[in-house]
């Protein structure tokens, strides 16, 4: 089972790749307001890439309940 | 739509589509318009524009699916054999994945000609809006 920090590192790589921005450095408190490229369309691409990478499936309510990257990583860890 | 669902459609690259594409996008490269040039390059006739297939994909997503509330997020296509005027193309798309959390459906697709040659294949991602 991956640790929270390992998940965060892998999620960070996904963000860099999908948002085409190598400067991204996610924190647990990061939200869409902190990253210019993170808009409604790239949000979809991020979730698809994360679900594929970790071989998990979120529900719509789970996605909407996450208020920052840290909560999403916790959600991944619980899958 | 469920993973594994298969959709198909037949297309013909006729003169109306060929001329329409040239008139709209102005790509008159000799490979597409000059028979002698195309033959010198090893083709039996002028080659149809590869992005005509992109138009067929648009038609498939917009008109052939059982729902209309769709938008294309991304698509990729690889070409394997040329298409010539009046070729009949058989298009098959299979739902390869569904991401319910963000209302996304992915397809793998294949174009074949009447000789069963692989013309092009690729992937499409759509969103349900």
Give your account of this protein's structure.
The complex is a heterodimer of chains A (79) and B (129). Chain A is mainly alpha-helical and 79 residues long. Chain A has a single domain (4-78), classed as ACP-like (Non-ribosomal Peptide Synthetase Peptidyl Carrier Protein, Chain A). Helix content of chain A is 59%, strand content 0%. Chain A has helices at residues 4-19, 40-54, 60-65, 69-78. The longest helix of chain A is centred in the first third of the chain and has 16 residues, at 4-19. Chain B has a single domain (6-128), classed as Thiol Ester Dehydrase, Chain A, CATH 3.10.129.10. Chain B has four helices and five strands; from the N terminus they run E-H-H-H-H-E-E-E-E. Chain B has helices spanning 15-25, 30-33, 35-40, 52-64, and strands spanning 6-12, 70-79, 88-99, 104-113, 118-128. A five-stranded antiparallel β-sheet of chain B has the order 1-3-4-5-2, with helices on one face. The longest helix of chain B is centred in the middle third of the chain and has 13 residues, at 52-64. The relative contact order of chain B is 0.23. The model of chain B has no long low-confidence stretch (mean pLDDT 98).
């Amino acid at each position: 089972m991956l640790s929270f920090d390992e998940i965060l590192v892998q999620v960070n790589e996904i963000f860099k790749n999908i948002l085409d921005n190598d400067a991204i450095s996610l924190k647990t408190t990061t939200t869409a307001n902190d990253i210019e490229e993170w808009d409604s369309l790239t949000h979809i691409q991020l979730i698809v890439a994360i679900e594929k990478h970790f071989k998990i499936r979120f529900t719509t309510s789970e996605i909407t309940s996450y208020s920052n990257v840290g909560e999403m990583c916790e959600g991944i860890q619980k899958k | 739509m469920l993973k594994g669902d298969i959709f198909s459609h037949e297309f013909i690259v006729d003169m109306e589509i060929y001329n329409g594409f040239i008139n709209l996008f102005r790509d008159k490269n000799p490979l597409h318009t000059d028979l002698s040039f195309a033959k010198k390059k090893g083709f039996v006739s002028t080659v149809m524009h590869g992005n005509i297939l992109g138009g067929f994909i648009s038609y498939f997503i917009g008109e052939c699916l059982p729902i209309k509330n769709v938008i294309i997020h991304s698509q990729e296509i690889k070409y394997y054999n040329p298409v010539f005027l009046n070729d009949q193309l058989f298009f098959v798309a299979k739902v390869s994945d569904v991401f319910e959390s963000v209302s996304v459906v992915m397809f793998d697709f294949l174009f074949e000609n009447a000789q069963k040659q692989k013309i092009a294949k690729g992937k499409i991602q759509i969103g349900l809006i």
